[in-house]
Each structure stands twice: as structure tokens, then as C-alpha cells.
Amino acid sequence: MFDLPTEKERILFGESPEGLGFWHETDGLQKVPIIYKAGLEDIPEKLLIFNSPKRFESPATTGLHSFDHGPKNMTALTRPMTWIHKFADFRCVISPDSYLSPNLAPWQRARNTVLARAAGAVWQYRGLTVIPSIRWCDESDYELVSSGIEKGSVFAVTVDSGYKDLNSNIEFEKGLTAMVDIIEPEGVIIYGRVSPNFVREIKKKTKVFLF
């Protein structure tokens, strides 16, 4: 008698993560699940990692993120329903940060992006306020990672160890400029340290919120 497939095995063979209905709208060649528009009113006063509940003092003004790529981030991708009741009291949640690397093949980058957006879509469908996150490696990712985000929507990006050298910083600044031009957001959340000169350039195009 065979064991039933695990959630990860079902996803590996093409099924959607738990909670994402087959009717959910998708966008782009890779059928990225749509996260509907987030506005300036959804931006929190504070932004904290989602798996450290002891640090939360005022959830009504706090947003949650998962920019650390820890093991709990994987459960957010594969079992997003698990987290809904834990996020319910918070101002907003940033959709999971997808792991992208120049070492990944295009299909792997697409898979990780789709899974991250699917989790955000599940949370939004269940009533949470969700701000989409975007990550890219280079220009070849732009069509993929901008898919599934409505024109004008606020989105979030992170500056972390993935952009630690000069070339990576150039790709980050080039990519964020492209995302702003494509999506035309009301505002952008930037998590992490970024060049003040670059921030000034982005502010010519949209509002910038630094965390």
C-alpha cells in the first residue's frame, strides 16, 4: 500500500499549494498567481520578521516579513494556511521572499516565484492585507517577477546578503528602477540599507518607505 504524497511532493508534480483555488487568477507566461493591489494605506509603521512573536507589541501598526530565508519561510511557501490565524491581527504581511540565485535554472526561478506569490494570494483571499515582495537576479527575471502584481500596487524589496557585492548592487538598483517603471507603484518598501543617492532617484518616480 502506497503512502499518500506529501504537500511538497504534490507541489513538485504541479499541484498548487494548499488553499489556492484553481479559479484564482494568474498572470504571465509562468501563470504567476495575482496578488491584488496594495495601497499606501496598507504600509505599516514597523516591519518585523514573522516568526518572532515575542517581539510584537503593537500588531495593529506592524507588518510582517520573511526576508530571512529560514526554515519557517519554507512552511510559509508550502503550507500557507498554517499561518493565517497567526497573522490575522497584524496591519499587513509581505508575501514570502522567493529564493532566487544566478545558479538557479529559469524553471527553478519561476517555481520559487510562483510558490511565493501563491502563498501571498492564499493569505489575501483569506482576508489578510498582503503586500507583494519582488526579487530578481538579472534582467531575464523582469517579466517573471513583475507578473501577478497590479499596476499601481505598493510592493516590497529587500537589500540583503544577496546584493553584497558591487555587481549585485548594480543589478538591484537597475532591477528596482525597472520594476518601478513597469508597475508604477504608489510606493515602494525597501528593507535594508541602500544608497541615499539611489533612494533620491527612486523618489522622483514614487514614494519610498525605508525599514
Write the layout of secondary structure elements.
Layout: H1 7-12, E1 26-27, E2 32-33, E3 46-49, E4 62-65, H2 71-78, H3 84-87, E5 92-94, H4 106-125, E6 130-131, H5 142-146, E7 155-158, H6 166-183, E8 187-191, H7 196-203, E9 207-210
Parallel strand pairs: 3-4, 4-5, 5-6, 7-8, 8-9
Antiparallel strand pairs: 1-2
Give the domain tally: 1
Overall pLDDT, averaged?
Answer: 88
Number of strands: 9
Instruction: Output the radius of gyration.
Output: 16 Å
Based on CA inertia axes, which overall geometry fits? Answer: globular
Q: Helix-strand pattern, N to C? A: HEEEEHHEHEHEHEHE
- Tell me about the biggest sheet? 4 strands, parallel
The largest beta-sheet arranges its strands as 3-4-5-6
Which residues sit in consecutive blocks of at least 5 with pLDDT less than 50? Answer: none
Helical/strand content category: alpha/beta
Describe the structure.
By secondary structure, the protein is an alpha/beta fold. The protein has one domain (24-210). The protein contains 7 helices and 9 strands; from the N terminus they run H-E-E-E-E-H-H-E-H-E-H-E-H-E-H-E. The strands form 3 sheets. A 4-stranded parallel sheet has the order 3-4-5-6. The chain starts with 6 loop residues before the first helix and ends with a strand.
Q: Brief overview, please?
A:
This protein is of the alpha/beta class and 211 residues long. The protein contains 7 helices and 9 strands; from the N terminus they run H-E-E-E-E-H-H-E-H-E-H-E-H-E-H-E.
List keywords for this structure.
211 residues; alpha/beta; 3-stranded parallel sheet; globular
